[in-house]
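Long-time lurker. I teach an intro course on protein structure, and each term I like to show students one example going from raw sequence to a predicted 3D structure in token notation. This year I'd like something fresh instead of my usual example. Would anyone be willing to generate the tokens for the chain below so I can use it in lecture? Attribution to the forum is fine with me.
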Amino acid sequence: MVQSSTRPKIDAVDLSPNIPRLMAKEPSSRGGVLGHNVPHRKLEGILSNIYHVKFYGPISLYILLRIPSNFRCGTLCPNSSSAAPSPFLPVDENETVTRLSTILRSGGVNDFCFKRVAPDYYDWPLESRRNALDASSVDHLCKSIVLVNTQASSNILDCSDRNNSKYYVVVVQYTARFNAEAVKQFLYSLNEGKIPKKRFNLRLAPEETSIKLTGFEHNAVTCIGMKTNIPVILDEAITKLKPDFFWLGGGEIDLKLGFRTSEFLEFVKPFIVPCS
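-- Reply from a regular --
Happy to contribute to a lecture. Here you go:
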């Protein structure tokens, strides 16, 4: 579809003629997944995957759907809460995949892969996410979170000193409970006690700060290709996973990056801290 200055005219898509019409912004009384709180991006992703077209502009203003109650993730699944979600979707060689792949290969990383997941991936339980990625276990599903040292000295404003940085990215398992106190103790010891312990207080950075520093939005954060060279802390438990291949965010909400642990350690050179 070619972008133009005028809004394209798209005819209504009838996925099920026996189901009453449902506007994209209307709640569904029949279990349809496209209700009041579904963002336009999710609707756009679903339609793009089905019809292989690119949409421009606020599509909810001019697309009218008839949605069956068992419509999920661009597929028709059985009406069962135990039904497995759709598998991962083909990865398009878009700007994010190309950029991050180039960074990894130029750094000598060879054992990695990207997988595109369905728009409602984060609504699934961990076991369903594991199935979608074909991960070895739910323990192999990890996330990157940006932390800010709220008690850093007034002259510590950036990440130029990785031993005493204003910000850190911590990679932990979804199944683990992050222990901020362990990171505080690690940083205190790393600086050989020269910085008072009270100067370390790690808290989750505001979302707008995380986006500004990394260039990635919530649920898309990865420690590869960040805008800022933020020092990375890897939970020690991840280094003990068998097999040694784990998953984390891939730069977009529905894009996941699988990584060989040994190559991650060599490329990222994170601090390894038992922090869960």
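Some talking points for your students: Helices lie at 40-51, 95-106, 126-133, 180-190, 207-214, 236-239, 261-268. The radius of gyration is 22 Å.
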